[in-house]
Amino acid sequence: MVDSNAPMFEIENLHASIEDKEILKGVNLTINKGEIHAIMGPNGSGKSTLANVLAGNPVYEVTEGSARFYGEDILELDPDVRAQLGIFLAFQYPTVIPGVSMANFLRMAVTNVRRARAEKSGDTTGGLAPREFRRLMKEKMKLLKMDESFATRYLNEGFSGGEKKRAEILQLALLEPSLAILDETDSGLDIDALRVVSDGVNALASPEMGFVLITHYQRLLNYIKPHFVHIMIEGRIVQSGGPELALELEAKGYEKLRAEFATPV
Ligand code: ADP
Ligand code: MG
Prior knowledge:
Blueprint: E1 9-18, E2 21-31, E3 36-40, H1 47-55, E4 61-69, E5 72-73, H2 79-85, E6 87-89, H3 102-120, H4 130-143, H5 161-175, E7 179-183, H6 191-204, E8 210-215, E9 228-233, E10 236-241, H7 244-252, H8 254-261
Parallel strand pairs: 3-8, 3-9, 6-7, 7-8
Antiparallel strand pairs: 1-2, 1-4, 4-5, 9-10
The chain binds adenosine-5'-diphosphate and magnesium ion (MG).
């Protein structure tokens, strides 16, 4: 069960495969509350696989190791139970839901998580009345400097990259998780999306919350100052350090690192 003395999140010797091909080859990572971690690495190094495994995507098979949230292994839990525990993974949600507005989608998502959390602590009143939800959503949109009209848009229908990220960050703000794991798209973020993500993370970061930002590019880290930077190559974290590591990487390029750390063939 949940152990408040354990680190908030601890990934230990995590191995995962897809179609019998091993992608994650022993990932170790500890995240305490209040910390912002960045995971960087070249394309194909397994960053999104890590995010997917933590989200519970059934396509990936965990073959070894653990991922513990306050001491509780989450790898056997359903994705929605992970969310109820306080872990946020943006992409576990459907990308397009025809005919469902942002506001309605968010109210469902937030109500589900809140109700489950409340029930756990013996409170059966859980959930959120529509009026209360609207008030909360307005408050969060103000905090994130988002236009209120955004809430009436249909979920992801014709959303730009920036709007998709805006929806994600708003959901994050409303769910108030303990740990948020954000995976950047492979094509990287356009300037609008980059702003949304960095402003959002900066507005929401608190001593109670941990972040894992997965990114291919150093660019995102011009706007967000991570406490720790990790480099992932061939399914392992091969180097960890402070923000200076991202700059070093930018100067050096991934090729040199790959030569240094890749397993010889
Ligand atoms: P990154 O996010 O660091 O670019 P990925 O985790 O997306 O890396 O990919 C790591 C490796 O796993 C790549 O070789 C990729 O081809 C393979 N892979 C990832 N997802 C799948 C999938 N759904 N089916 C087959 N191979 C996959
Ligand atoms: Mg990726």
